[in-house]
Amino acid sequence: MARVVVGLSGGVDSSVAAHLMVEAGHEVIGLFMRNWHDETVTLHDECPWIEDSNDALIVAEKLGIPFQVIDLSEEYKERIVDYMFAEYQAGRTPNPDVLCNREIKFDVFLKTALKLGADYVATGHYCRKDTVEKDGKTVHRLLAGADPNKDQSYFLCQLNQQQLGRALFPIGHMQKSEVRQIAREQGLVTAEKKDSQGLCFIGKVRLPDFLQQQLKPKKGRIIEIARDFPLHREDTNTHNFEHEGAVAPYKFRPEDGKVVGEHSGAHYFTVGQRKGLAVGGTPEPLFVLATDVEHNIIYTGQGESHPGLSKQGLFIRKDDTHWLREDMKMEVGSRADYLVRIRYRQKLEPATLYCEPNGLYIIFEKVQKAITPGQFAAWYNNEELVGSGVIDH
Asked: Which fold has domain 310-390?
């Protein structure tokens, strides 16, 4: 029997995870994380934290386990929110959910659990873990969830061996429908509750309102680039890497297109975005091709098949490359074939990774749409997540 602390979020997944840990005979403690106090930007009817913490409490009482609310808002602001503002300000699009798991749930929260004498932290993530021996060492493997529609391994792509070693994923081998059925059978108040959306542990927020707390609105031009306009790459080739051209960003200038509208701040927009441009009258919808936060310009193109939206590959800086499987870390000058995902829910795409002195180049078999700086690319060996990194360009 182990002592297991479950992160109870007030949702059905963590509720059933806690139930399964109790059923397995473990000593279980439920903790709810409160990570945000500013309610001016949250949509109360979407994800009120008070309702969530109450549901978590009711579940804990039903399961007969101790429960408490812990306030991690200071750490959350410092590690997640400040990071988000800095990334948006720099013209990149961060993924707070990935950071939240690395910095909050499996760091600050895990340390809190260990202080309570926990052996493990259990979560309601749809992913699996197994442990193998390799060259006399214990190696933890992070595997995709059994439900392909709910697999959340991508969100855990920045974990390390120590964090994974302390993690349990009780529902990872199940389908979502099975999880709900167990919740119904156990009479858990969360059985029919909708899945939460929005920022990790905050809920659904009005992102522009959220960003405007720090990043002030600033009017600028929306420029449309014609589909047949000759695309030019930025010159980033400092290492004579043969595939540099496939990953270099496109270089747009104001004179390359026509002004079709006005926006309230380039830092509010992301590559591939369609909604929020408020420009009508075009035969096909406009998509964001690039943002220039320095000059406050958004470059757009008509239709998701616009050539300016597609690239063959991407680049990850050396310092931003992370190997969950440290024993599989690539040596400079080597190459390896993996399946790669550049956003949650995207299907895995075959690609070749090239390890160069400055970082990792990923070249896909097929061109990819809307490769977005600031997001995470994760690479898999079949169903095992091996490593990840922040997309630079």
From this structure: Elongation Factor Tu (Ef-tu); domain 3 (2.40.30)
Residue whose C-alpha is closest to residue 236's, from 177, 317, 306: 317
For residues 378 and 95, give the distance between their C-alpha atoms in angstroms, rounded to a whole number.
13
The catalytic residues are 100, 200
In this predicted structure, what is the pLDDT of residue 197?
A: 58
Would you identify the CATH topology of the domain 3-211?
Rossmann fold (3.40.50)
Q: From CA 184, how far away is CA 191, in angstroms rounded?
A: 5
Instruction: Tell the CATH topology of 216-236+251-303.
Output: SH3 type barrels. (2.30.30)
Q: Where are the domains of the chain?
A: 3-211, 216-236+251-303, 310-390
> Tens digits of per-residue pLDDT, 175-220?
999 999 999 999 999 998 887 655 544 555 566 667 767 778 889 9
Report pLDDT for 201: 45
Which residues of the chain are under the pLDDT cut of 50?
43-44, 47, 200-201
pLDDT digits 0-9 by tens, 220-229: 999 999 998 8
* Full-model pTM: 0.91
